[in-house]
Design goal:
Blueprint: H1 25-28, H2 32-59, H3 65-68, H4 71-95, H5 99-104, E1 106-110, H6 118-134, H7 138-145, H8 152-157, E2 159-163, H9 172-178
Antiparallel strand pairs: 1-2
Helix pairs in contact: 2-4, 4-6
Length: 179
C-alpha cells in the first residue's frame, strides 16, 4: 500500500496589482533641502565606517602602508561596500527608501506613483547617479526647477522622490471586526 500526496502549484505566481489613485507628484514632491539632508545622512553613514576603521588602525599603531593594508582597514572597506549595496539597492527595492530617506520621510516611486522596480533603481543608481555627479551636481539641481521635483537620475529612471505616506482607508467590515 502506498499513499500518494499531490500538491497543487500555481502555474504562474502573480502579485496583487496596486493601483495608485489621485497620485500628484507635484503636490507630493520632496523639498530640495530635505533631499539634501537625506543624501548627507547616507554619505555620513558610508564614510563613517572607513574613517572608524582607519582610526582603529591608528590606535593599534599601524602606520603608512601597513595601515592601509591592514585587516582592520580591509574589513572596514568590505563593510562599507555591504552598507552601500544595502542602502542604495536592497532597501530602496524593498521599502522604496535609503536610510537617509527613511529618516527624512522621503520615498522613491515610479513617476506614476507605483513602487519602483529593480530596473528603475538600477538605472537610477548605476547610470543616473554617475551622470549627475559628472555634471558637477547640476543634474541634482534640476529638482529645484522641475515641477515634480525630479533630478537627472529621476528622469533617466522614470522615478520621482516624494514626501508623504500612504493613507490606509478601513472598510466597514474591517472596523467592525476590530471592535
Amino acid at each position: 500500500m502506498s499513499a500518494r500526496v499531490e500538491r497543487a502549484f500555481p502555474a504562474k505566481s502573480t502579485k496583487p496589482e496596486q493601483v495608485v489613485l489621485n497620485f500628484d507628484a507635484a503636490r507630493l514632491k520632496a523639498p530640495f533641502l530635505l533631499r539634501c539632508g537625506a543624501i548627507l545622512i547616507d554619505y555620513i553613514l558610508l564614510v563613517a565606517v572607513p574613517v572608524l576603521s582607519l582610526l582603529l588602525g591608528r590606535y593599534f599603531e599601524y602606520d603608512g602602508a601597513k595601515l592601509l593594508n591592514s585587516e582592520i582597514s580591509n574589513t572596514g572597506w568590505l563593510i562599507t561596500v555591504l552598507i552601500a549595496l544595502t542602502d542604495f539597492v536592497i532597501l530602496p527595492l524593498i521599502v522604496g527608501q535609503s536610510v537617509g530617506k527613511m529618516l527624512t520621510g522621503l520615498r522613491v516611486v515610479k513617476s506614476d506613483g507605483s513602487p519602483a522596480t529593480l530596473k528603475n533603481l538600477c538605472l537610477r543608481h548605476l547610470i543616473g547617479y554617475p551622470l549627475t555627479i559628472l555634471t558637477a551636481g547640476v543634474g541634482f539641481f534640476l529638482s529645484v526647477f522641475s515641477s515634480r521635483g525630479r533630478a537627472l537620475h529621476d528622469f533617466i529612471a522614470g522615478t520621482v522622490v516624494i514626501y508623504g505616506k500612504r493613507e490606509v482607508v478601513k472598510t466597514d467590515s474591517e472596523s467592525e471586526s476590530e471592535s
